[in-house]
Design a protein that fits this description.
- Its EC number is 2.6.1.44.
- It comes from Trichlorobacter ammonificans.
- InterPro entries: Aminotrans_V_dom, PyrdxlP-dep_Trfase, PyrdxlP-dep_Trfase_major, PyrdxlP-dep_Trfase_small, SP_NH2Trfase/AEP_transaminase.
- It is an enzyme of class 2 (transferase).
- Keywords: Aminotransferase, Pyridoxal phosphate, Transferase.
- The protein is an alpha/beta fold.
- The chain has two domains: 105 residues, Aspartate Aminotransferase, domain 1; 238 residues, 3-Layer(aba) Sandwich (Aspartate Aminotransferase, domain 2), CATH 3.40.640.10.
- 41% of the residues lie in helices and 16% in strands.
- The protein is built from 13 helices and 14 strands.
- It has a seven-stranded mixed sheet with strand order 2-10-9-8-5-3-4, sandwiched between helices. Strands 11-12-14 form a three-stranded antiparallel sheet, covered by helices on one side. Strands 1-13 form a two-stranded parallel ribbon.
- A hairpin with a 4-residue loop joins strand 6 and strand 7.
- The longest helix is centred in the C-terminal third of the chain and has 21 residues.
- The protein is globular and about 55 Å long.
- The chain starts with a strand and ends with a helix.
- The chain binds pyridoxal-5'-phosphate.
- Pyridoxal-5'-phosphate (PLP) binds next to helix 3.
Length: 353
Amino acid sequence: MTQKLFIPGPINIAPEIFTAMSQPMIGHRMKEYAELHGRVTTGLKRLLSTEDRVFLATSSAFGVMEGAVRNLVKGRCANFCNGAFSDKWHDVTRRCGKDADAISVPWGQPITPELVERTLATGKYDSMTMIHNETSTGVMSPLAEIADIMRRYPDVVFIVDTVSSVSALPIPVQALGIDCCIFGVQKALALPPGLAVFTATEKALKRAASVENRGYYFDFMEFSSNDDKNNTPSTPCISLIYGLDCQLQRIFSEGLEARWDRHRLMAEQTRSFVRERGFQLFAPEGYRSLTLTCVENSRGIDLAGLKKRLGERGYAFDDGYGKIKGQTFRIAHMGDLQPAELEEFLAVVDEEL
Ligand SMILES: Cc1ncc(COP(=O)(O)O)c(C=O)c1O
């Protein structure tokens, strides 16, 4: 049975996207591709409020997350860690042979500007990574306040994962001074998996140019020189880029503010639902994700059983991630999901509870 997805990615895809993706194939060195590439990167710049370079990589998010540390860490990297994906990013940084420290807070807590300030004030780091919206814990860290701190450290490259938050709230990449903003498209952007997007400031490109052993597939210099011709270093996932072209048009026709409001509304809807049923939210007040709600299993529910029953009724439900699986569950309300669809799902959860 096909299940409607309420897991935090991949998520439900609008039928128009699949139609757009089934357009006839073109060659990636043909002018038709250059037109598509130019249109999509222009749309992404509008979405991200930036004039920085925007690149398209054929991989999931971790391809570029690895690429970013290979290209941008020259000395030592501070990997801010507050959940499964940020912990893994530290591991990946080390596996790339880079000097790096995990600056960790307990899962469920945000990365705070104070922690960033304290860490960078040591003068040990030339780069930092953080995840804006930790999908494993439903914690959204205060990006604007952290960006204010980052302005005091112009020699530190600021690398941010926005995989599960992009387009759900304003993330003005240029105004925030993010040097490299990275996301895959299968979560907040509601596309099938396989495409990752990243931005790069001049500072980031300058750093990359001075770093050795960048490899080939994610070499930012290769992306930059190919993008000058509206192209990519290797054959891109053209069908998905057609899908992204369609999705950008859909986002702009909904209106960015309407999209942001819809996400806020669905987050509030979900938080009230779980609270009224006696559960506690995993993230502290003020740091709760707008795209998924991570809930403490404070009623000791058999989450595996609940997941199975919901699956039988046609709904994919998430019973927690990594070391908090079973202790928490997550309800995703991202992408193109509408409040009425969420309400329908929550009513079914209610019956099964
Ligand atoms: C915040 C965040 N970053 C990175 C990833 C890893 O993405 P991928 O599996 O697309 O490489 C995920 C996946 O869930 C995520 O939620």
